[in-house]
Amino acid sequence: MKSPGRTTSTTRCGSWTIPIRASYVGILILITLLIVFARLLDGIYLARQITVPVQLLAEGTEEVARGNLDVRWTTGPATRFGTTRRLVQPDDGGP
Length: 95
Prior knowledge:
Oligomer: single chain
Radius of gyration: 30 Å
Largest sheet: none
Strand content: under 5%
Number of domains: 1
Distance between the termini: 94 Å
Structural class: mainly alpha
Number of helices: 3
Helix content: 55-70%
C-alpha cells in the first residue's frame, strides 16, 4: 500500500525516464570510449619516444663494436637522450 503524499519517479516522469536514462548511458559510453582511445594514442606516442632513441643507441653500439669509432647520433637535443648525446659526443669546438 502506498503512503499518501509519496509518488514514485515513474508516475511523475511518466515515459521520460527510459529515454533520459538511455541517453545518460549513451553519453557515458561515448566519453569512456573517447578516453580509452586517447590513452591508447598516448601509449603509442610514448612507446615511440622511448624505443626510437634506444634503437639508435643500440645501432651505434653495434657500429662501435665493429670498430667504427666515427659514429654520430642523429637525435636532436629535445629527446631524452639529447643529454646523453651531448655527454658522449661533444661539439667539435669544445676543449
